[in-house]
Amino acid sequence: MTHVITSLCLRDNGCVAVCPVKCIYPGEPASQWPTFFIDPTTCTDCGSCVPECPFDAIFPLTEVPGAYLARGGEYVNQVGLTGRYEGFDHHGNKIVLDTARLLAAGEIIDLRSSIKETVMWSCHFLDI
Ligand code: SF4
Ligand code: SF4
Question: What's the gap in Å between 102 CA and the centre of ligand 2?
């Protein structure tokens, strides 16, 4: 089992330092892999990263929402979107994303595409 970073991730970077097995990586290039990713071959499912994410982007694999109910004001960040997000990460570095979209309160979105993205990124990252 593994945890999965969903498209709610805005590259805040706060989760990386707390992972005891160092299996969280920024997607690079960000234009192709806009979020951070968890290497599922190394993740021990400990859950330590979950409370570190200011955007509540991390879920256990089996709990990734198929019908995520937006509070309003959060962003999704994925290839194909063309909106802009600007902010600062956990370390105070400026973050600019051109693959984002602001969600409206009450909007319902399927975050499970992040599972497929994680598999694709893993093949890319592990070169398999
Ligand atoms: S803390 Fe959340 S937003 Fe930041 S990199 Fe990790 S998953 Fe992404
Ligand atoms: S669940 Fe634990 S091992 Fe997996 S990415 Fe998060 S902190 Fe790392």
Answer: 27
